[in-house]
Design brief:
149 residues; Chemotaxis protein chec; 6 helices; 8 strands
Length: 149
């Protein structure tokens, strides 16, 4: 569904333009809003953004888990309760809520990174650091053996 990485800038009001390729997918699917929430990847903070259909499917999977499972409760408290619904404006921009911008440490320069059915928003410098570390791991032949591809 989504693919690629795209650099953008957050304006002084906290708005950022969604990459044109991502907007095309959203428009084709009839989505005019996104769900945005906090996320960790390799101990680094970023934000995850879901179209409504994908968010609903994800939340439904979580609902299948045991309501009283402590791990599920922690995940819901962190990930689902942290989510906010944001509209996509006519210019293809979203307003990143200040609390989430601050949590993820987003500066002016950010990068959108695809994750198949959703995408992430990173501070550009943080993602570059993560990608350098990941590049070293991917060079190890054992890495691909673990993937079972």
């Amino acid at each position: 569904m989504f693919s690629g990485r795209f650099d953008h800038a957050i304006d002084e009001k906290g708005r950022v333009s969604i990459p044109a390729r991502f907007r095309e997918v959203l428009q084709r699917e009839g989505h005019d809003r996104l769900f945005i929430t906090n996320f960790f990847f390799s101990r680094e903070r970023c934000l995850e953004l879901y179209p409504p259909r994908e968010w609903d499917a994800f939340v439904a999977k979580i609902a299948e888990r045991g309501r009283f499972d402590t791990a599920v409760q922690k995940f819901e408290t962190f990930y689902i309760a942290g989510a906010q619904e944001v509209p996509v404006d006519r210019q293809g921009r979203i307003l990143i809520p200040a609390k989430l911008r601050e949590w993820a440490g987003l500066g002016r320069e950010v990068t959108f990174s695809a994750r198949r059915d959703h995408f992430q928003l990173w501070d550009k410098a943080v993602l570059e650091r993560v990608l350098r570390a990941t590049e070293e791991e991917v060079q190890d032949p054992a890495f691909f053996e673990k993937l079972n591809l």
